[in-house]
Structure formats: structure tokens, C-alpha cells
Design brief:
The chain is an alpha/beta fold. It has 25 helices and 19 strands. A hairpin with a 4-residue loop joins strand 5 and strand 6.
């Protein structure tokens, strides 16, 4: 509380500097204003309840549209691949474990299931008998359709917009041009029967099923676990069983196709080897026939000589090495940097017999090519397995086999040079031996090599043929899917809880947002911090009982609040001068007349001669409050020069006098700025201890400013939950330019508890009575309740 000596130093037009009774200098606590938020939530309780009920209702409605999810499961056993030593006729495992899952999820597996089970056709369960034989042709056109049967066994097929597409006779094919393989029995249709259904492509339906499929295969494991999720347990189990059966059957077909491709490759190689063997035998036979009558040219002794035998053997070997080198060089030249033809090597049986690594590489290339052709029928080029096989074939064609061939050529060149040097030394001794002996030996060896190659390929071909006859799939179903009796997941309760929580959050956010955007005055800090007014007093909310009377305890609190206000105002003014102030508010119904009349009563009851002036010359009603005549009054005093003693009237309360507004006149507001008004205030200062002017609200125009300037002091009344803060801020900013001192703000209509719980009083010395409370003025026409 500032000292009275310091009050004279307070400049006019300043609002934020006066501490006031309740401490306008209180600093708003730092951090989150929880009290304000809680108050806002309490005030919007009904709105929040409505939002929560609406959100919960929407959540409950949404839960009915969320079906329960059932998971069905099946297990497939994957047979382990056997090593080549496990048996001569058993094929190794076709695919590595990681590729089985890719094969399971391929469209070549799932689309036949969709077509067979008609999963891409959607219709009412009661209409299932009509679609028993429905087939999806490659030219299927997706969309929504309506089939309507007509009299005389006719039908009309329309689209979703009821535009006819096809008409015909029941029993015939329906929708063939739309890709339907559908001819339902005409006896199923009654006249006027309407079927509504939709059709999607098997590929799009497959994509939807793949999103619901989950599979797991442990590393180096043999049990593939497959889980399918759906809303219909029976339909989901049926779909998964069909899917697994198609998966197992396709794996067997894939393995058979792989063996067929490999068998075909071996058959081509066997045919070339057989042709080469026949040519070798034919050449040897022709040579012997043509030389059978010729002398051998070499005696038995010479033929048995080791030198002679060694020369002929080396001569034949030299020819073979030379021919093989030339053939290989020609094969490499014909390839022109590309892959070598594996079939061409069959024309060189001695090289294949003497070079097992080349023969193994050619066999592996043939096997990999057969496997690649087989898997391309089911898998795309982007599949990792296809990519791996393609890379292996590329390495064999462009790296492994060419490297082996170059190594063989290098070896042949070295052998050819060595044999040539040896033959040059021995040719002098053996020059006389006929060359037909050497040629015959060469033809014999060539025939023997061709026979060996043919025998090896034939044995391999018979092994593959026997394996094909006993081929069994690498997969087998360990257990089929069974329809579950209870859903594995039900999102309905979770969705309902989320809806309730979301609605609560939305309700709280809406309440806080509305509180933030609310223009009305509600909290004490809005007066002190936003408007710069100290709170000098509060008036409790006047809520009458059903009988229209007020509770005695409430009346006691109201009287005590005006006593507190009287004390605050008294000490805001110099002790040696009368109290002169105007009471106004931003707009009507803020309770300024209630505050001014009861503050005047409070001063009068304390023994102060008090003059209450009804300055609202437009709509003043204080004469009705104190039940006195309205004329003559303030208007007559200002306009006609009536004496002050004539217009001032005594009231039923001791020491309280009232100057009513007088007669309404169009120019009455202009009289408030006249010299007569200043003279009135001057005379009142001399004759009364307290002068209180009930001014019009700020929105009335210049009236409030004129009366406040005449009084020099003003008390602003703000009604909790009703006064417009933005309007008050603008009007007070105008008043700051006038010679007016703000005594502070009186908060009217303060509810019990909440943020105003420290502003009221709750202290009684005993049972209160109506007589002990005191008198309370409640002007007629004033809203005193909430």
C-alpha cells in the first residue's frame, strides 16, 4: 500500500503503476499456467463432454466397420538336397532355401489359386450359388456390374451406373466380351432377381493377398511356416490350403522341367558324339578296305622293333596334337571373342577325354543353362536366383572355359614342338616305313576316343532318364491350415480407446484454444497485465435462490466486499480531501451501477456524507433503485440552471444522497462537458465527503470520458466472463490521454473458488441474520446473476 504522501506524485493517465489493495504488482508465476488451464477446462466442461461423446460415438461406429483378423497357418517340409555320392539317380535340391519363399510369393503360384477359388469376384454370400462356375478369362474387364433377370428367361447386364452392357437369354454365356467365363443355370433365377457383384483382375487380387501373407524359414532349416491373415476364417483357411497345394505341385513340375531340359541337352550332346563315333569307325573301315591288298611295307621284325613302334606312335601323336591345336585355334577364331560353342568340343573327343576339367566345365555349363531356362518360366529376370544362374553361366562361357582352352592350346603347342623335334631326329631311320601304318594307328586311336566319349554321355543320359522317372517334389505339406475359432487380433477395442483418447485431446485442445481466443475478461492477470489496472476489489457472483432471494452468507460476502472496496478507495485518495470518483465499465451489463450504488452505501454507512450522481443521462436507473423521482435531476441542473439543493434528494439510507439523471434529452450528453458540470463537482466537494458518479459505459461515447475528467478519478468495473477485454483496452488507451487517475479495477461477478478463491472472504463470527448483514442495493434491470 503506497503512502498517502506519495499519491500526490502519481501522474494522471497512468494505469500500471498503482499497486492497489490486492497487489496489482503481483508477478505472474513463470512456467505453465496450470491454474488457468484447469479453469478453462472446467468452464468448457459441457462442450468437452459433447465432443467426447461425439468422438466416442464415431469411434464406436468405426469399430463396427473394422473386422476381426484371423490368422491361419500351414507348414511345408523342404527336403534336403543330397550330395552326388548319395546315389546315382537322385537329383539334388532344385532351389536354395531362400528361393522357396520367392517362389511361394510369385504370381505364377497365387494367380491360379485366385482364379480357381474366384477370389477376384465379390458378391453377397447369399448369391454364391450363382457364381459356382464363374471363370476369369485373360480379357477380363474389372468393374462393378448388375445382372437383372427379366420375364421370358431374359437378362440384362449393366454397369454400376445402370447403363446396359449386354442382353441375352439365361443359360447362355454371360459377359463373354467382358472376360467372364460364366453360364449360370437359368433355373436358379426368378423373375426380377438382381445380382450385384464386382470383379477385379487376378493380379490386383494377388497383390492384396501377398500383403496378408507372412512366411518364415530359419537359416539352414527345413520347415517353411506360412501364415495368411483374413477376416473370414473359413475362406482364409481354404485359400491358404489351395495356395500351399499349388506351391507343392508347382515345385514338382519345376523340378521335372529342369530334368527335361537337362536330359534334352544331354541328348543333343549324345547325338553329336554318336555321329562322331560313326564317322571315326567309318574312316577306319574305309582305310583298311583300301589298303587290305597292299603290302605292309615293314617286316614283322621291323614292326616289332621298339624304335619303329615308338616312331609311328610319336608320328600319330604329333598328327593328333596338330589337328587338335588347329581345331581349337579355329574354334577360338570363330568365336570372335564371344562364348565358345560347347557342342563343338564334342568333335574333339580326345581333348575331352584327356582334359577332365574342360569336360566338367562343359557339363556344369549345360546343367546351369538347363536350370536357367526352367526357372525363367516361373521367375522374372529380377529374381536373385535367376540373376545368380545368369552370372554363373556368363562366368563359365566368358572366363572358365576360355581360360581352360587357352591352357590346352599352350600345352598342345609345347607338345607339338617337342614331338616335331623328336620326329626330325628319327625320320632319317624310319624314312622307308609307309605312312599308311601311321594313319591306321591314328584312326584307331580316334575311334577309341570317340567310343569312350559316347559311352560316358550315354551313361549320363540314362542316369538322368532314370532320375526323371523317379522324380519326387522337394516339398511336402506337413500340416494344412485349420479355420481358427477366435480372432488373433481385434482392433475394435483399441480403435475405441484411441477414439476416446483422441476426442478427449480434441476437447481439451478446443477448450484451451477457445479460451486463448476468447475476448471476454476472465482472469485476474488479464486486468493487471493486459489492461494495466490494479485490482482494488471484487464482487461475488449474485446468484439468487429459486425463491428469488439471496442467501444470507452470500449477502454477507457481498457487503464485506464493498467494505473492502471502500477501504481501498479511501486510502487511494488524500485524507484531507473528499473522495471524488467516477465509476464506469467497457460496456453495459458489467455491473457499474451495482458497484457505484453499493460503494456509496458503504461510505454512507461509515458516516460519510455521500452524494451519488447518476451520470448516465441516457439510460440511468438509480432513481428506481432508491425509489425516488427522476426529475428534476442532473439534466435540469445543467440545462435550466436549477439549484443544486433542488436536484439532490435524500434517500432512505442515512448520509446517502442521490442526484438522479433527470429528463432525457437529445443534447443531454453535451451538457456533461459544460462549466455547470465542473461547478457541480466543485460544489459537491465542499458539501460532501464522498462524491461517486455512476458514468455511462465506455461504448456510450464521450459521456464516460467527460465525467471521469470532471471527477479526476475513475474506477473501472469488469464483469468476469462478460466484459470485452479488447474493447476495454482500446477505450482505456484513449482515456490515458486525459487528466484522469485510475484507481483500479473492480471485478464483478466473481465465482466462488477457482482463480478468484483468494479474493473473497469466508470468515463469520456466528450465525448471520438478514439484519446483521446490512443493506444491498441491486438496481432493477441489472443482471446480478451469472
Amino acid at each position: 500500500m503506497p503512502s498517502r504522501e506519495n499519491l500526490d506524485l502519481v501522474p494522471y493517465g497512468s494505469r500500471a503503476h498503482v499497486p492497489g489493495l490486492h497487489g496489482a504488482s503481483e508477478v505472474e508465476p513463470e512456467g505453465i499456467p496450470w491454474a488457468r488451464y484447469i479453469e478453462a477446462l472446467k468452464r468448457h466442461a459441457l462442450l468437452m463432454l459433447a465432443i467426447v461423446i461425439a468422438g466416442s460415438s464415431l469411434g464406436l461406429l468405426a469399430t463396427r466397420r473394422v473386422p476381426a483378423v484371423y490368422d491361419v497357418q500351414s507348414t511345408v517340409w523342404i527336403a534336403s538336397g543330397l550330395s552326388p555320392q548319395s546315389g546315382p539317380i537322385r537329383q539334388e535340391q532344385l532351389l536354395p532355401p531362400s528361393s522357396w519363399i520367392e517362389l511361394l510369393r510369385s504370381h505364377s503360384i497365387i494367380e491360379p489359386v485366385v482364379r480357381n477359388l474366384r477370389l477376384n469376384v465379390h458378391y453377397k454370400p447369399a448369391d454364391s450359388m450363382f457364381f459356382a462356375g464363374f471363370e476369369s478369362l485373360p480379357s477380363l474387364r474389372p468393374g462393378e456390374y448388375v445382372l437383372e433377370s427379366e420375364p421370358a428367361g431374359r437378362y440384362t447386364l449393366s454397369n454400376a451406373k445402370k447403363v446396359p452392357i449386354e442382353r441375352g437369354t439365361l443359360g447362355d454365356s454371360i459377359g463373354k466380351k467382358l472376360g467372364f467365363g460364366w453360364a449360370p443355370d437359368a433355373r436358379l433365377f426368378a423373375s426380377g432377381r438382381i445380382l450385384t457383384f464386382s470383379v477385379s483382375t487376378p493380379r490386383s487380387t494377388s497383390m492384396g493377398l501377398l500383403s496378408s501373407l507372412h512366411s518364415s524359414l530359419p537359416e539352414n532349416g527345413q520347415f517353411l511356416t506360412i501364415t495368411l491373415s483374413g477376416s473370414d476364417p473359413d475362406r482364409t483357411a481354404k485359400t491358404l490350403n489351395a495356395w500351399v497345394e499349388q506351391f507343392v505341385a508347382s515345385s514338382g513340375d519345376l523340378k521335372k522341367r529342369h530334368l527335361l531340359e537337362f536330359k534334352k541337352t544331354l541328348g543333343d550332346q549324345l547325338a553329336v558324339a554318336e555321329s562322331r563315333l560313326r564317322d571315326s569307325e567309318a574312316q577306319l573301315e574305309r582305310f583298311r578296305v583300301s589298303t587290305i591288298t597292299l603290302p605292309s611295307g615293314v617286316g614283322s621284325a621291323q614292326a616289332g622293333d621298339p624304335v619303329v613302334g615308338g616312331y609311328f606312335q610319336q608320328k600319330g601323336t604329333f598328327g593328333e596334337v596338330h589337328n587338335e591345336r588347329v581345331a581349337l585355334e579355329k574354334m577360338v577364331a570363330d568365336a570372335k571373342g564371344g562364348p565358345l560353342d560347347p557342342q563343338a568340343f564334342l568333335m574333339l573327343p580326345m581333348i575331352l577325354n584327356n582334359t577332365p576339367q574342360l569336360r566338367a566345365a562343359i557339363d556344369e555349363l549345360s546343367s546351369r543353362q538347363a536350370a536357367l531356362r526352367t526357372e525363367k518360366q516361373f521367375l522374372t529376370d529380377a529374381n536373385p536366383r535367376v540373376k545368380q544362374l545368369s552370372e554363373t553361366v556368363h562366368v563359365l562361357q566368358y572366363e572358365t572355359i576360355p581360360q581352360i582352352v587357352q591352357s590346352i592350346l599352350q600345352t598342345l603347342r609345347i607338345r607339338e614342338q617337342d614331338l616335331s623335334a623328336r620326329l626330325a631326329n628319327e625320320s632319317l631311320e624310319l624314312r622307308g616305313i609307309p605312312s599308311r601304318t601311321i594313319e591306321e594307328a591314328r584312326l584307331v586311336r580316334q575311334a577309341a576316343a570317340s567310343e569312350n566319349l559316347y559311352s560316358g554321355l550315354k551313361a549320363r543320359h540314362e542316369e538322368v532318364s532314370l532320375a526323371e522317372a523317379q522324380t519326387s517334389p522337394d516339398l511336402s505339406v506337413l500340416d494344412l491350415a485349420v479355420p481358427p475359432t477366435h480372432p488373433n487380433s481385434n482392433d475394435a477395442p483399441r480403435l475405441l480407446v484411441l477414439a476416446i483418447l483422441a476426442s478427449i485431446g480434441l476437447a481439451g485442445g478446443t477448450a484451451l484454444l477457445h479460451d486463448r481466443m476468447d475476448r471476454r475478461f476472465r482472469y485476474p492477470e488479464q486486468a493487471t497485465h493486459e489492461l494495466g489496472l490494479s485490482i482494488v476489489g471484487t464482487v461475488p457472483m449474485l446468484r439468487p435462490k429459486r425463491s428469488g432471494d439471496f442467501q444470507v452468507e452470500l449477502m454477507s460476502q457481498v457487503v464485506e466486499s464493498f467494505r473492502t472496496l471502500r477501504l481501498a478507495v479511501r486510502y487511494e485518495c488524500p485524507a484531507d480531501a473528499p473522495v471524488v470518483l467516477a465509476v464506469s465499465s467497457p460496456s453495459s451489463n458489467d455491473g457499474k451501477s451495482l458497484v457505484s450504488s453499493n460503494l456509496a452505501l458503504a461510505f454512507a454507512s461509515a458516516g460519510n456524507r455521500t452524494l451519488l450522481i447518476d451520470g448516465d443521462v441516457r439510460r440511468g436507473t438509480l432513481h428506481s433503485t432508491f425509489d425516488i423521482q427522476v426529475t428534476p435531476g442532473l439534466v435540469e441542473y445543467l440545462s435550466n440552471g436549477v439549484g443544486i439543493d433542488t436536484v439532490v434528494k435524500s434517500t432512505s439510507s442515512e448520509n446517502l444522497f442521490l442526484l438522479p439523471r433527470g429528463t432525457r434529452a437529445n443534447r443531454a450528453p453535451e451538457l456533461l462537458v459544460s462549466d455547470r458540470m465542473s461547478a457541480l463537482i466543485k460544489a459537491a466537494r465542499q458539501n460532501y465527503d464522498v462524491v461517486i458518479i455512476d458514468s455511462p459505459p465506455f461504448v456510450a461515447g464521450v459521456d464516460a470520458y467527460a465525467l471521469a475528467a470532471a471527477a479526476g478519478n475513475i474506477l473501472v468495473v469488469l464483469r468476469q466472463g462478460m466484459s470485452d477485454r479488447k474493447l476495454a483496452a482500446v477505450k482505456l488507451a484513449i482515456m490515458d490521454r486525459l487528466p484522469i487517475r485510475f484507481l483500479g479495477a473492480v471485478i464483478n461477478g466473481v465465482p466462488a473458488g477457482g482463480m478468484y478463491r483468494y479474493y473473497g472472504t469466508d470468515y463469520s463470527g456466528g450465525a448471520a441474520t438478514a439484519n446483521s448483514v446490512g443493506r444491498l442495493a441491486t438496481p432493477r434491470g441489472l443482471v446480478v446473476g451469472a
